[in-house]
């Protein structure tokens, strides 16, 4: 018996496209913010290291 993919109704298809677009947008925001997060984390590590050395 051959498998067939059931057709999605129009509403479900529209919702799926909307969710995928929102996920893509969220992913783009995370990628833009990633360098700032890395710089912040590196700065925190540097400050902690200096406190240990100076303390």
Identify the overall geometry: rod-shaped
Query: What Rg, in angstroms, do the CA atoms define?
Result: 23 Å
Query: Which class of secondary structure composition applies to the elements?
Result: mainly alpha
Largest sheet geometry = none
Notes on the protein architecture:
- The protein is an all-alpha fold.
- The chain has a domain at 26-55.
- Helix content is 82%, strand content 0%.
- It has one helix and no strands.
- The longest helix is centred in the middle third of the chain and has 45 residues, at 10-54.
- The radius of gyration is 23 Å and the shape is rod-shaped.
- 0% of the residues are buried.
- The model has no long low-confidence stretch (mean pLDDT 86).
Feature tags:
55 residues, mainly alpha, 0% strand, rod-shaped
Task: Summarize the helices and strands and which ones pair or pack.
Elements: H1 10-54
Q: What is shown here, in short?
A:
The chain is mainly alpha-helical. The protein has one helix and no strands.
